[in-house]
């Protein structure tokens, strides 16, 4: 049976606006982030979603609550959290490695996660969600790095990465036979 997963990045946060590394640490949505979530909510208004999930992080929960006008129950899952950047949390993004290859293991020696660990965690979590019999169309709000690493499990992410993953980007996946296939990336006019 064909199922659909909408995997979405949260709205802009204070740390996004200030160009701070934000993984396991959290910062609130900005006014722009709230506006972005409202725009994304317009995209979803005519889509019948049967289950809702969010990372346990405040920025993702707040985004989902804005999208749904706080009218639906949802489940918070640690498996949807952003990558742990260890000692780099809260520091300037200028300190980040310059490309995806450099990201793979860079943060491990600083108490963070490898990108493959994030990928595996996201794949496991999203499979567990979509394997539930009554889950046909699901929205899960997560994070930019987590979404990128999830995509990396199913295809070369280079083409989509080049287009960027702005806040509130929506990755629409088909789920069938325990595999995800990217159908499109919706980048709402934000």
UniProtKB/TrEMBL annotation:
Pfam families: His_Phos_1 (PF00300). InterPro entries: His_Pase_superF_clade-1 (IPR013078), His_PPase_superfam (IPR029033), PG/BPGM_mutase_AS (IPR001345), PGM_Phosphatase (IPR050275). Substrate binds at residues 9-16, 59. Signal peptide: none annotated. It comes from the Bacteria. Transmembrane segments: none annotated. GO terms for cellular component: cytoplasm. The active site is at 10 (tele-phosphohistidine intermediate), 82 (proton donor/acceptor). SUPFAM superfamilies: Phosphoglycerate mutase-like. GO terms for molecular function: phosphatase activity. This is Histidine phosphatase family protein. It comes from Clostridium sartagoforme.
């Amino acid at each position: 049976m064909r199922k659909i997963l909408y995997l979405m990045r949260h709205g802009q946060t204070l740390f996004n606006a200030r160009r701070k590394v934000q993984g396991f640490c959290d910062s609130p949505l900005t006014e722009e982030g709230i506006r972005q979530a409202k725009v994304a909510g317009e995209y979803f208004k005519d889509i019948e979603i049967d289950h809702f999930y969010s990372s346990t992080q405040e920025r993702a929960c707040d985004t989902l609550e804005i999208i749904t006008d706080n009218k639906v129950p949802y489940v918070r899952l640690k498996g949807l959290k952003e990558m742990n950047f260890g000692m780099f949390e809260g520091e300037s993004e200028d300190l980040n490695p310059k490309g995806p290859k450099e990201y793979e293991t860079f943060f491990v020696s600083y108490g963070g996660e490898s990108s493959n660990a994030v990928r595996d965690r996201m794949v496991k979590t999203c499979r567990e969600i979509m394997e539930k019999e009554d889950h046909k169309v699901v929205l899960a709000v997560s994070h930019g790095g987590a979404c990128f690493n999830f995509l990396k499990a199913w295809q070369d992410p280079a083409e989509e990465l080049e287009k960027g993953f702005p806040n509130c980007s929506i990755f629409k996946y088909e789920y069938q036979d325990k595999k995800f296939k990217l159908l499109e990336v919706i980048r709402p006019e934000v």
